Structures are given as structure tokens and as C-alpha cells.
Amino acid sequence: MLIRRPSDIRSSEITDKKLYMDRRGFMQLAAAAGVGVLAGDRLSAAPAVPAPHGQKLTGIAKSPLSLTTEKPASWSALTTFNNYYEFGTDKDNPADRAGSLKIDPWSIVVDGECNKKATYAIEDLLKGQTLEERIYRHRCVEGWSMVIPWVGFPLASLVKRFEPTSKAKYIKFTTLNDSKQMPGVRSTVLRWPYVEGLRLDEAMHPLTIMAVGLYDEVLPRQNGAPIRLVVPWKYGFKGAKAIVKISFVEKQPLTSWMESVPDWYGFYSNVNPAVSPVRWDQGTEQRIGEFVRRRTTLFNGYQDQVAGLYAGMDLRKNY
Ligand SMILES: Nc1nc2c(c(=O)[nH]1)N[C@H]1C(S)=C(S)[C@@H](COP(=O)(O)O)O[C@H]1N2
Ligand SMILES: [Mo]
Question: Closest by alpha carbon to 191, among 261, 256, 239, 262?
């Protein structure tokens, strides 16, 4: 079968070694994790790690759905080691370049198979929502992982409000595509805008949230401000950042990654150590800040909660 590869796909996408060789990223993470720096390395070589930006969210409820007692990654690791190709393909590009992204005002277009098609201001969508802390395991397809203390609310509450019709089987998420603000969209590494999708029942699952915060602060731009999707049993790329459109559709949407590299990226993208459709072996993962790889678990450890969604499905075919 012919594998279509974007001609200028970055080596950082193709080898996970790059992750550990990126000196700057490594120094930051080592510092963030409190790990000693190798002899001969000067700490001054690492840029200052950002402090929490001081835009506190209030009235956050603790959710019983955090389901992990692991310690979340530090603020600095979470905000300097990101994937956000609209700002470049290196992990520190989003932190360096997303700072001036205009996120206010922000609105989301809701269209397709639903009764409440409209353009909604983000304030309107947040009205009446209880913000919850959800500490989730995050597993990236490239093999690294983190524990992330999101603040958000169930996507199901929005979906109900928009009243999908009986024809709505999937939700398509479209994200901001603005070449004036996002230098990375000049690259052809992906077809822009970045598009992701979920089956409607996946979108309605109580673990699926829209995140607007990190720790108890407003979501930083590099993490997807003002609003992004988080689906903890799927690989990280499902978590579309800077969402500007939610479409209810009948047919499975074509996501940006499926379109670019269909043999590597499937629609479901459920974390599955037994299926490695992408170049990397998905059997193990490396927590940022740790030096020993751990075993990856089916559905990223959320099997008790989500396995029922896929009863009877061949997860090797539906990767
Ligand atoms: N719009 C957009 N959303 C995106 C991406 C992207 O390039 N553009 N990258 C995805 C990938 S590959 C991952 S792992 C997560 C990373 O989220 P984080 O940087 O907050 O950890 O965002 C996802 N959402
Ligand atoms: Mo990712």
C-alpha cells in the first residue's frame, strides 16, 4: 500500500530520539523535574521557565473522575513542552511563539445536524458551567506521557445544549487557522485547519471534557487557549486546541492526521499497547521527567470506564 507522506514532514515527527536530543527541551524538563543536570552542563544555558501567569480561576470543584493519584507534571513542563504545529513542530515553539495569540474575543460556530446552530461567544458557552479539576493521564503517540491537571467541564453538557438531531453520529472539531498569528500554518506538514473528530457517544462520555484551565489558572495559549478538547483514553493528538467550530455530522470526519498519514493515524486513536500503526512502538511510554519507560495500558488505563464504547469492535482494524 502506498504511504503518502508529507514531503516536508519534520524529522522530529519521525524519530522520538529527537525528543531527548533537543538540548533546550531536555534542560528545561530536567530542571522542571528537579533532576540533576549532567556535569559540565551549565544551568544558565536553560532559559528561565515561566511561572504560572497569575490568571486564577475560582470556584473549581474537585472531580471524582480524576482517577489517578499520580503527581501532575510541573507548570513549567506542561507549558514549555507542547505539540501545536500551528506554531511550529518543535516542542518549545508553542511556548516561544503563541504568547501573542488573540484569544479575546472568541466565539465558536456550531453547525450541521443540530437544532441550535449559531455562533456562540465563549462566555455564553461557559455560563452556568461548573468548572472541575480533572487530573488525567496524557499519552502522546510519540511515546511520551504526562499527568495533567486540567480544569474544564464535560463536553456532554454542550452537546445536549446544541440538541443534535438523530442524524448526528459524529462531531467534527475545527480549530483556528490564522496565518497572521500562526507561523506554522505556512508549512505543509499538515492540511490546515487542524481537524479532529469523535463519535457522538465518545463525545458524550463523562471523561471527555472541554478544558479552559491548567492547574487553577486560565489555560495558557500554548496549551490550547481559550478552549480545547481532552479525551484521556486516546492519544494526545485527539485533543484539538483553540476550537472555533463544532459540527454535528452523519459521516466519520476526515481528521488532519488521517488525511496526512492514513497508515499511521486512525480515526479512533485509542491508546493501545498492542497496536502500533504509527512508526513508534506503542507498548511503552516515557513520563516526562522520568528516565525509565513504563508499560502503556489499554485505553491509557481508562478501560473500566470506556471499554464498553467499543464492545464487538476490532480494535486492530479500528485503530
Ligand atoms: N490545533 C492543534 N491542536 C493540537 C495539536 C496541534 O498541532 N494543533 N497537537 C495535538 C497533539 S499531537 C498533542 S500531544 C496535544 C498536546 O497538548 P499539550 O501541548 O497541551 O500537552 O495537543 C493536540 N492538539
Ligand atoms: Mo501528540
Answer: 256
